[in-house]
Description:
Rossmann fold; 7-stranded parallel sheet; alpha/beta; globular
Amino acid sequence: MEAALSLDEFRVRQVLPAKRNRHLANNRDEVDLSSPEAVREWHASLGGPAAGAIGAVINFLNFAEPFAQPGTDQSASPLQLAQWVLNVIKQLESDLRDSGRRGGGWLLNFTCLDGKFGLGGDGPLPVAQAATIGMFKTIAKEWPEVWVENIDIDPRMDPEMVFTQIADEIASDHGLLEVGLSEGARWTVQWADTPSDADQLGPLPLDADSVVLITGGAYGIAAEAAKQLAREARPRLVLLGRSPLPGPEPPELEGLRDRASLRKHLIATMRRENPSVVPAIIERAMDRVLKDRQIRANLAEIQQAGSAVEYHALDVRDGAKLAALIDGIYQKHGRLDGVIHAAGIIEDALISRKTPESFANVFATKVESAIVLANVLRPESLKFLVFFSSVAGRFGNAGQIDYAAANEYLNKLAAHLDAQWPGRVVAIDWGPWDAGMISEELRRLYASRGISLIPLDAGTRMFLNELRRRKDARPEVLISCSLRAIEAAGRTQ
């Protein structure tokens, strides 16, 4: 690839990951890609504006040995790989976008899953690479002037054929964001409607003796799924959440049921204790009261529906504690029939303002905990593992490079595990729900983009349908009221 580009009179610089920066011969550099400062120093060493802007970046980091190995080996850290890519693209944003406005600006991401972005269903996948695909989809949303493409190559292809097909792909002008290459074939990714006919749905694979673990399960859409499971099958539910289990509400707050009266009370109370308290702290206190109310109500509703429920306050990013808790479930109950991984946080920011710390916080909450589940669960007795993913992983979303990366990892992990485990493994790419504490501001934003919210009853029904599905069960499923609007939304200008 480097030689071909050089023949076309492009100036090519090869960057290799290393522990410190060092210039090598033949336009090759070793760079500490884990350090934004080191990447900045390398960029400056190229000569600045006088040397010309960088017009294209081709990412082959996914082909490095740790990341090209199939499975979920912790030595091939998806977070490390994603942060390397983040540090490089942040540093080169101005170069690439300026080049794009002048007719250049290429950003290509090569992966070697199976030539079909992991959707072929025919073998274990090197899932550590998956996050970069979601990242590049988001870059395409935020940098519309740059030509962005994910190209997935079948690792079994003959190297000479790979080079020929890559050259043809780069020379084409099709505007596709995802293209897969296998021997003699070229693939694109499209979504299609799947019917929910009754003859495709079997019984719910749970009963009152079953045990189900739900991360993030006391709040939001995960809690809605838990309540529906309790109504349908009454399994024992083990719920994990970051928040401590709330105690009884203070009597002085019980009669304050609307936001206005609650805010007024908190302002008066908190300013008596600290006259200089800022509005942001008051809002956080109010959100905490409202969230605790919802957690109490959700747990009570689950119990009233007939399910025994356990709640554990645990940060799922702590892999050792999560693994110990799962081992404890097997020891205590002798079984674990189903798992729903719904834990997640968002810290939205455009790429230029996204810090490595924030990226890691969002990414690890979904991904590091999913890796623990993949390595600790006992697939021989597990009936299902469901990842609550997001349309951000499937389509990318401006301001959510970390969230898109994490959810696309879940999508590929589901495909990897579903091909090997006897039970159902599926990632559900949810669109936005009309549930939880969705603000009126967010409702207006969705409405302005033509995006409808998933009604609560429809969302829970579709969730149960995925657990019941017998035929044509896919490892990645999109559920939304407005897929075309979501696919088109999010591009910044």
